[in-house]
Design a protein that fits this description.
rod-shaped; 6 helices; about 500 residues; 24 strands; single chain; alpha+beta
């Protein structure tokens, strides 16, 4: 019976790690819950993390901009010695864009700015011209383009429907140099023609690259961010919410997200009372690792509350779960020495137990780990009669335990520490019951159950992540009211 209880405690400790499927996405307003005033956890990216994100993002952007179509140009121009000429510049496209030098910086209170100080592009175009008057001299050919440009990209990020979203993406592209290599009969003469239209071609390419950057970034990033599951099903119908509670914070050399970290019963959403789920102020210091995450003990407390609301913290222990080789059986005969009144009233009967967590456990994070000084439980003893079960008595207890968490790669495991409990008889239908022998039974059951539970927990659970994203050498630290994870990142496109 304690195996279930300790597994429940472990679930509370690791919260989102047990997500099995993405739940339907709701906002707090839709489900009529109050958005937590303080985040349950935060995720911050250092300058090192931003530098890596920039390099990954620009690699993706280069691929998105591998082919840029530019509208054709046509019109008339006056050329010395020739006169009025009608022209057509078509099939203009950029076939390759390479970012050579770039940096990223935080714009405090606004967002992120990516500056590309050197980028090279190659492309091609087709050209045709015809003299408007007789003898209607004309020429047709192609040209190769070499472009050198710079770009500044400003990303303004906000919380929209609890998701991180780009509210505005602004790109400012400047072409520093455009070389045109003409192909076609008489191209040496036509160079003059392109000199006349050079600025116009520069402006069109500059505008097209700028618009392509803005569109690709704004659409691609927002589509991806909106797909991030901000609500995950821990154990049906319990939902864990990692949606943003407010806009991100942009400070010098860092970028911080504020996530809710609360849980609720999806069938009957209920706010956890403030005196049961106290919200904490999380640290703001950030390591030089790429990402730093802080999680407060509000998160597992809120999860425990939601699981109780959903009636998920009760477990029936049937006689059949006792191993056949065990000398102890779950029946009144085996319990006769510890509870004589039970055997006297119901001799030779099987007994089943209903184990329940009757109140939200007090969960406290500290530098020593996770301490649970109070976890109220009840154990109802039912006697199995021929066609029904009758409640004989109820044993009420309050457990005191602790736990530590271990992080191996991105696999989280836990270990339950020494556990004790106090017990009393809260209800009896068989007359007076001496609690002391039953307390000794509970002490033995706990001592026997902890190694079994720890053996199962040692296998660990793979924490959820974004496809293609790996966390390198993460380290876990406990502090007063919080648990922190510092890690580096590596992304490989799953495509």
């Amino acid at each position: 019976m304690n195996s279930k209880l300790f597994l429940v405690v472990f679930v509370a400790l690791i919260s989102a790690a047990l997500s099995t499927e993405v739940a339907k996405c709701y906002s707090h307003e839709t489900i009529k819950l109050t958005t937590p005033e303080k985040p349950g956890f935060t995720t911050s990216f250092s300058q090192n993390g931003l530098n890596y994100a920039k390099s990954v993002g620009l690699d993706i952007l280069q691929k998105d901009l591998a082919s840029i179509q530019i509208p054709q140009l046509n019109g008339t121009a006056k050329v010395s010695l020739v006169g009025q000429i009608s022209y057509l510049i078509n099939s203009i496209k950029i076939n390759s864009l390479q970012f050579q030098q770039s940096n990223i910086q935080v714009v405090p209170g606004v967002g992120l700015k990516i500056s590309i100080s050197q980028a090279n592009a190659v492309g091609s175009l087709g050209w045709h011209y015809r003299e408007k008057s007789w003898p209607h001299i004309q020429g047709t050919g192609t040209a190769d383009l070499k472009v050198q440009l710079t770009a500044d990209i400003l990303l303004e990020l906000k919380s929209v429907q609890n998701h991180l979203q780009l509210s505005k993406s602004t790109a400012n592209v400047q072409i520093q140099k455009l070389d045109v290599n003409l192909h076609g009969k008489g191209s040496w003469f036509y160079q003059f023609f392109f000199d006349v239209l050079h600025r116009l071609i520069v402006n069109e390419i500059q505008s097209a690259v700028q618009n392509a950057m803005q569109t690709s970034i704004l659409t691609g990033v927002n589509d991806l961010l909106m797909k991030v599951p901000v609500r995950q099903e821990i154990l049906k119908p319990v939902i864990f919410d990692i949606g943003l509670v407010r806009d991100p914070l942009f400070q010098q050399n860092s970028f911080t997200l504020f996530e809710a970290g609360d849980s609720y019963d999806a069938d009957q959403p209920t706010d956890c009372p403030a005196d049961v789920c106290p919200q904490r102020d999380l640290p703001t210091n950030i390591s030089q690792r790429m990402a730093t995450m802080y999680l407060s003990d509000y998160v597992p407390t809120s999860l425990a509350f939601a699981m109780i609301q959903a009636h998920e913290l009760s477990y029936v222990v049937e006689p059949s779960v006792i191993p056949p080789s065990s000398p102890f059986k779950l029946n009144t005969n085996s319990l006769a020495g510890m509870c004589p009144p039970l055997f006297s009233k119901y001799p030779n009967r099987n007994v089943s137990l209903l184990v329940s967590l009757t109140g939200v456990p007090k969960i406290v994070f500290s530098s020593a780990g996770c301490n649970i000084p109070s976890a109220p439980v009840s154990i109802e003893f039912y006697v199995e009669l021929d066609t029904t079960k009758v409640l004989a008595f109820t044993l009420a207890g309050n457990l005191n335990t602790s736990a530590t968490a271990l992080l191996n790669g991105w696999t989280l495991s836990a270990k339950i520490g020494p556990t004790s409990g106090t017990w009393s008889i809260s209800q009896t239908n068989i007359g007076p019951v001496d609690v002391k022998p039953l307390s000794n039974l509970m002490k033995f059951a706990i001592a026997f159950g902890i190694p079994t539970v720890n053996s199962k927990l040692s296998a660990g659970i793979q924490l959820p992540t974004v496809p293609g994203l790996q966390f390198l050498n993460p380290s876990l630290k406990w502090g007063q009211d919080y648990l922190s994870v510092e890690t580096d990142l590596q992304y490989t496109s799953p495509n």
